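Researcher: Go.
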Amino acid sequence: MKERSEDILIMMEPGAQVSDEQLHKLDVDVELREGCEDVFIAGHLLAREQSTLDVEEELKNFKTHYPKENRRLSFTTSSFVPFRKTSIVKWVAVAAVLVGALVLLWPTQQEKNNNLFFTHDEHPQRISVNKGNGEEIELGLAVSQNQIDQKMVMSIEETGKDVTVNVPYGKSLELVLPDSSHVFMHPGSQLSYSSLFGKNKRDVKLRGEAYFVVSKDCHRPFTVSTEKTLTTVFGTEFDVTAWRDRPERISLVSGSVSVKLNDKDLEWQIEPGQQLNLSRYGYAVVEEADMEPFVSWRDGFFYFDGAELYDILKELGRCYNVSIECHEPELLKYHMRFIIPRNKDINYAVEMINRMQKVHASLQGTTIVVSK
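Model: Structure:
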């Protein structure tokens, strides 16, 4: 508990640089994120130009009117207001109060068993298309992927039905929409669009991750709807990441896009080379980002440059439909450069991990086991 309390104070200190290790802690520890959120709110209260502000009373009132489950805060790096130097003492005092409360409320529990941090689908499926009339078509692998896509689009266009495309773990798909836009779908993703697609608007709904190459049409906007955001474009290339267990992310390769939050009247214009990251709490940050990983996915490659082994292995788990097991979690923090073609088999991927000589990976049935 003491270590967690220190993490809160260090990460929320004005001007602090949060490390990858600290971000990983925030990702796996719900209570730690909530503690940081409370300190963040306290800091914003202190930033007000009010010399007689009763911080503890203000924070109490805020929590009463805005419980955690309904709370949505939003800021960008350019609009964030730093804490005043004169408020630091008060801010630390409030943080101490919050940490003290967390000491009393934090449950004493054993560390979660995260040896197995990705589980494969025991019943692998084929790529399928569900039509609005309840009909489901499974796509086989008898012909090349491009041929499958083209035939599927023609059939859908003629029926005039709503469509949902499901791509299970272990599969990926380049989908060609009726307007000739291309969607490169990641394993485990789902894309839906209605029979009205292309009439006045081009609307799709995404769960998972996909790279879009949108045909230019200034009169018919193209929108991607997820659980939390709505992205609007007219003709561009961009990636949308919308997994339920990860923060949403919109990454722009070319052109321009507009991103809105579904539950807020907030909108961002993103420029090429920028990425909007939306946290689980609704914080939005626009920042510069490397687009090479997304372009490489479009071109058929895994591309990780300086990424944590944790992220690399989880992506391999989805793409090859294998479980990932690691009994020494500290190994997952290694940063690696990992670039291989996606058409290589799982044995090749495991061999390339071992060639980096940082960890030992072995394929045991349907599980990649990682050790020293």
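Model: Residues 259 and 268 are 5 Å apart (CA to CA).
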